[in-house]
Each structure stands twice: as structure tokens, then as C-alpha cells.
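Problem: given the chain below (375 residues), write out its structure.
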Amino acid sequence: MRRRLRDLLGRPAAPGDRGPRARDAVLVVVLVGVAVLESVLRPDLAWPLAATLVAIAVVAPLPWRRSRPLLVVALTTLVGAGFQVAQAAVGTGPDGLATMLAVLLAPYALFRWGSGRDRVLGGAVLAGSLVVTVALGGEGVQGAVAGVALVGGACLVGAFRRERVAARTSQLDAVRAAERESLARDLHDTVAHHVSAIAIRAQVAATDPDDTSRVSESLDVIEREAQAVLTDMRSLVRQLRAPAGLEPSPGLAQLASLADPGPPTVRVRLDDTATPPDIVASSLFRIAQEAVTNARRHARGATTIDVILTLTADADAVELVVHDDGAGVRSPSGTGHGLQGISERAALLGGEVMVGPDPDGGWTVRARLPQGHDA
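Solution.
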């Protein structure tokens, strides 16, 4: 039991617990305006000015609800409870503004971003506030149930949102890890190919060191292969350790093999002047393969899928476009694991992927990857 409590208290705050943002200022201004308007339009308020000031005091700390959730919960709870105690002391019934319901953002933020210690202490503060509200309000069981439903619901929504974001982050991390492993395998194949050529040419030169022409030719080959290895190494920003795959890394030849009579028909057109490094060629194939697969699965009524590889105007990059003429409804945000994977792969190589619908219909995946030696 003690261990569970220590684990609960030791849990860190959730990522994204940053301080005030521009939209928070807008939120406070709107709530203050609504509170003033409500106090003017409600003739049933016994203390309209006090109720307005309390509502302002409650909403003022909300911009810090993400970075200081426990403090915001404590302040809003103290202000609200103090107002209720003052009303009870003079015999006035509950007389607050509906605008004060915005205080529910505080318990939501507590369980959405707060640390384990904050959540435990904040939960105790909220429970104490509910007890005071029920005791002073005289609303009996119905009031207690309503208070628990509102505050508890806000806490549950915050906790569920936190778990959902954490699960999504974990899934994306798994996608990134898998993509890095794939890139590492591709890099292994590329380096092994070039290093084997270097070793062979070095052996050729060593068989007859007095043959200057053979030695010079071998050194030229060794230099080119070593430069190719360095290019591919610089193209990969980061990689994970993983065993080399048994199959060779795909390249432009495999990209051309994606052509299919269909249906839907897959047409492939490659620019013969494009000579990207092996690691880039392999990535182009992976991106095209994923895009074609997605088009076949999700593009309703698609008859043609075009795969086009061209050089940019400055010849420093290659551009891959996969377009289908289907009418499928797909999210332009690219939140699928496959799209996330190809975006991650392109980013690791210094490129980018853009995904979305076309104005004239259909769907396009556009990838741009550097092909120069400075990639």
C-alpha cells in the first residue's frame, strides 16, 4: 500500500504543462465580460457586485491551470468557499453567477496535467470544498450528487484525456522506432555494399603494388565508394541498433515495379536523370509503397494511381508524387501510423512529406528528399 502511494505521489506532470497562452487571455476577457453582463441582467442577485468580483477572482487564475494546477485549484476553491461562508453567515442563500461554472476547468487541468502529488492534494481540496458546499447549501442528497457529478466528471474527463494523449504518444513513438530500425537496416545494406567494393579494390591494388595504373584505378574506385558511404551516413540523422535484414534494400528498380494494370491501374513514371543515394532511393520506395497501399485501401472509386519521380529545378532534391483519382474521405492531418512513418522517414533524411486532397478531386502524397552529397 505504501509503495503504491509512493508511486502515485512520484508520478511526474504530463507533457504540455506550459504557462499562459494567448487564448487564455481571450478566455479570461470573455468570462469577465459574461460575468458582468450576467450580474446586470439578473435581478435576483442579493449581492451583484460581490458575486461579480468573486466570479472575476475565480476566472483570473485559470491561465495558469496547466503549469500550476494545484495552486489554481486551491485559489478557486478558497474564493468560492469563502463566498459561500460569507453568505451563510448573514443568512443569504447560494447566490453565485453561472459564469463561476468555468471553475470546472481547474479540476480538469489538475487531472490532465498535474503531477501525482498535485492530484492527491488537489483531490483532497476538492473533496473538502464539496463537503462545505453541501453543508452550507442545504440542498441535501441531490445537491451532493450534483456537486460530485460536476467536479468528479471534470476530473474524470481530464484523466481520460491524459491517458488518451499518453497512449497516442506511445503509438507514435513505436512508429518512429520501427521507422528508425528500417532505416538502420537500409543503411547497413548500403554501407556493406560500398565497403565490400572498397575491400575488393584494395585487394586488387595489393596484388601488384608496382602496377601504378592498377593502383591508381583502385584508389579512384575506393575514393568514390568511400564518398558514397559518407553521403549515406550524413543522410541518416539518427538510427537504432537492429540486426540487418536478409533481403537487400529496395531502390528505384523496385519503385518501378509498383506498376500494376489494376484495377486500379498504377502508373509509374521515373526521371532517368535522378540518381539519389541508395538510402534515399530505398526511402522513396517505402514512401511510394505506403502511399499506393493507402490509395488502394481508402480511395473509393479510384481508377488510376500515378507514381511520378522527378528532379527539382535545381537538381538538389528528388520529388515523389503519388496521386489517385478516388473520392475517399481521408483526414488531411496525416495521423495514421503509415503516414506518420513515412513523414518520420523523410524528416530523418532532411526532407518532408505533404499529404492532402486536391482541389479538383483525388488525393496526393508529395515527398521531397535531398539527393546531393550534402544531404
